[in-house]
Input
Amino acid sequence: MRARDKAAVSALRATLAALDNAEAVPVDESAPRAAALEHSPVGVGVTEATRRELSESHVVDVVRAEAAERLEAAAQLTAPAHADRAARLREEAAVLLRFLDESPDASDAA
Output
């Protein structure tokens, strides 16, 4: 952010949001949704669910998926009017792929 690299900031913010979503606990569809008010839990934090902890390989998968999504979107923007947007998407993907290249998993795989 301090370097004013808009593509990096955009890519990292979106990827952090995707990681945050991946940590969310899935909603149990079989659980009852509505109950009487007097049966509701009371107190600070009683309705909070602990978030899932992602493994390093899961984090790498999310980052890789975000990069692939940007590259796919850039490939679909073929009109000359969208050249700037496509270039920015490729730049964002490159930022994310750089992080994958620097990860310890990447050196283990090589």
